[in-house]
Design a protein that fits this description.
Blueprint: H1 9-19, E1 20-21, H2 25-40, E2 55-64, E3 68-78, E4 84-96, E5 99-103, E6 114-117, E7 124-125
Parallel strand pairs: 1-5
Antiparallel strand pairs: 2-3, 2-7, 3-4, 4-5, 4-6
């Protein structure tokens, strides 16, 4: 979530530089900075773009070993007519330098890693997470 243009470069730059690895990590930073610049408008440079209206609702492990993991992460946000819209994003992780690191998505954008889902059923729910339907 913190590797998102919404939070501004004070948040997304160190998140991506320190926690994202792989051949597309630099592309992710470039794409995120480009999106931030496009949406910044009249805001001072470095400012957050505003509130985000998405929450993390749950996850499901796809695979796990001592040095790699794959999981699907469910996020939810407002849609049309007060309906909650959900998406699941596949994350690949690798244990490196004493911590789990996210492998950058192919091409440096999360779009191809996410898909719409109708509900969080079948996923492990985060405590106090999510919103209504």
């Amino acid at each position: 979530m913190r590797a998102n243009a919404q939070w501004g470069p004070k948040v997304f730059e160190p998140t991506i530089k320190d926690q994202v690895i792989g051949p597309d990590a630099a592309s992710l930073l470039t794409a995120t900075q480009g999106l931030y610049d496009k949406r910044r408008g009249h805001l001072r440079d470095g400012a957050a773009l505003g509130r985000a209206y998405a929450v993390l609702e749950g996850f499901r492990w796809q695979g796990y070993s001592s040095d790699t993991a794959s999981l699907d992460l469910v996020s939810a946000g407002p849609g049309d007519s007060d309906v909650t819209v959900r998406a699941v994003t596949r994350l690949q992780l690798r244990w490196q330098n004493g911590d789990w690191r996210v492998i950058a998505p192919p091409g440096g954008t999360w779009g191809g890693s996410a898909a719409s889902i109708p509900s969080p059923d079948g996923y492990v729910r985060f405590p106090n997470g999510g919103g209504g339907s």
